[in-house]
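Lab notebook, bench 4. Continuing the backlog of folding jobs that were queued last week. Each job is logged with the same field layout so the records can be merged later without manual cleanup. Today's entry covers SESN3 protein, a 430-residue chain. Filled in by technician R.K.

JOB TYPE: sequence-to-structure
TARGET: SESN3 protein
LENGTH: 430
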Amino acid sequence: GRLEAVTQQMGYHPQYLDSFLKTQHYLMHMDGPLPFDCRHYIAIMAAARHQCRYLVNLHVLQFLRAGGDPQWLRGLEFIPPKLRNLNEINKILAHRPWLITKEHIEKLLKISEWSWSLAELVHAVVLLAHCHALASFVFGCGCEQDEGLGGRGSLKPLSLGNQCFCEATAGNSYSQELLRINRKRSLDSCMELDSLRERMQRIHVETEGRDEMRLLQQDREEGEGQGAEVGVQGGTEHCSDPSAGLSPLADTDGVVTGATNLACYMQDPDFGYQDFARRDEDQTQVFRVQDYSWEDHGFSLVNRLYSDIGHLLDEKFRMVDGLQSSAMAKRQGCEPSVFKRGIWNYIHCMFGIRYDDYDYAEVNQLLERMLKVYIKTVTCYPEKTNSEMFDRFWKQFKHSEKVHVNLLILEARMQAELLYALQAITQYMI
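JOB STATUS: finished
OUTPUT FIELD FOLLOWS
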């Protein structure tokens, strides 16, 4: 029940790790609107959208330790309708968050035997966004491969010893509190899990091994980058999406192999990310941060409906923004804040979120094409990340800088999902 690989990678940035652990612990183990078993099942549903076995297996064990019904692990058909009804916004938030509307919120909140309360729904939305974004980090930093699941193991993690999730922050201000508060209920502690593993194996028919994800030939990879650049004519932005035309390195048929085990945890598995710039004309228009922002709108709403989580999320957003990246920015010939903002705004642009005060021509000036391909893949199709990306796209970066970029991806993606979901909730409330 550990997140060793994640904490080892985040350990390159200890202050951020401390902030992340506080949020993770609060979401999963502290008092809140949702029962503990449901929290972990929602995490399973979220991680399954990206075929992230690392997180699915972790939360399966934690679900059982929380007293969850083993029958639920047979798939969505065996869970209460109230949880199953969450599948639609899980799917939308994971892949095309701009499609979520107040009607989706109303459907979940309508008066019936299986209705959600506003507080429960906000907790669930934060959990979904957290786990979707964490799946991006897991794949982006090679944690999925490092767990001995037949993967690639391309990155060497920071050596922190054989520590459990809570102990990884030893020496930090919050570590002792994590170990002290509700220790029995903390599902990430180092208690014996053999009996639970046996229970899990009885439920799952196929839990061992996974196929390697196949790669396209290099000529195909290069071809996928056509149309990737932002066009600038006369100094003005020409293309509405600097990510248009960038595709991940995937299988030749577009299918990720070895995902059948997790199919029981999701519906409509073919639903995936589509370039926002290619949306139909009648779909949601560009999301302008000037109209709805985390600082002015999202923070207060989420904090009111799910006490204190807004402060924890805000601290995490600020922490990743404050991480040092002087060497990374220097190689790009710009200030650290400029480089980080370019990455952040590029990620938000892929989800249709725009900043009126930002010149998107800077994205092509700051980010090389190979780095943009990597960022887009980890953000939008994390399950298609492959080991060659680290070798081919990251030669100029130190390991800690690679982790830093992946932390920016994690937080920018999570905030993007939250902005769309919280805006829809706000519109429903109005």
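OBSERVATION: The longest strand covers residues 232-233.
SIGNED: R.K.
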